[in-house]
Amino acid sequence: MNEVLVTCAALSKRYGSKPALSGVNLQLGRGRIVGLLGPNGSGKTTLIKILCGLLQPTGGSVAIDGQPICPYTKSIVSYLPDRMYFADWMTAADLFDLFADFYADFDRNKAQAMCVSLGVTPGDRIKTMSKGTKEKVQLVLVMARKAQLYLLDEPIAGVDPAARDFILGTILTNYNENGTVMISTHLISDIEKVLDEAIFLKDGQVVLHDTVDEIREREGKSVDALFREIFRAGNYYDGGVF
Amino acid sequence: MEWSFSDDRPIWQQLTEQITLRILKGEYPAGSRLPAVRELAAQAGVNPNTMQRAMAQLEQNGLAVSSRTAGRTVTDDITVIQQVRRERAHEAVAQYLNIIRELGYCQADAITFLKEVLQQHE
After folding, report:
1. Which residue in A39, A91, A218, B106 is deepest, having the highest Cβ count within 10 Å?
2. What is the reported pTM?
């Protein structure tokens, strides 16, 4: 098991002529909760999709647990997409079967317990569920795996603030100590206190990667406030490379 | 007591302060066992690593002791707790004096005001 879980070196991705990521260098350790923060179109989803093998990078390299993206890395990555991809006639319990088939590390008992605590009835069909409940089901599926890297793309966008706290609590109590959780969002103030590290993405580049405590100590302000400052002023933050 | 955090300082420092306050208030009595880091982190809605750092600071301050068998406990040395309590009281008074000074009064006034308010409360 590698000490460093994720390494990106000079990673870039273009969609046609449009660059989505350019020259991303990144290292993530284990047992961390990392916020991937940036405005819309900054490359958050692109980076996550490359890490889980849904997109091929245009240049540079990626390694997870020391290996390039391959069936092994896919088996240790648990991915929460930014949209629902399940057939809506299925019930949450059907999805448990599906996940148990696909992923050896899926823990059905844990999924069931999480459903109870989130107030989701596993027998309900997806199509009868509210947007927030669907998101909760997806989160349950993803967090009930004993993965090493959890990639959560906008996990709290569609739920009310009370449910947000609950979902964050679920993430906090369900990731394993060897695992790292990467959460992409622009709702920073909601997740700031659960994060170890923050990565700021701007126009496809990492402009800041540091621990949340370090940022607060150095800047005397919250990560949320710093984010607003950087992305409002329109100039890059220099320094603070982690 | 609810956990609350301000924006301007690291969260672990604020956690240390708030747990210290709980110890001083007797919510976590001297010699009693402190909840596990993960449990406390979940309660406060913070990252377990952040809570761990706050706990390490409490140990450094002498308020918490960790032992192999009993987990982490509040120190049973009452004098340490009393000393921190006094420090806290002094800090509160210093804050009061600062505000009074900013309002343009002198220290003698501060004492007068204190007496006045105390009398009103009697």
Report:
1. A91
2. 0.84
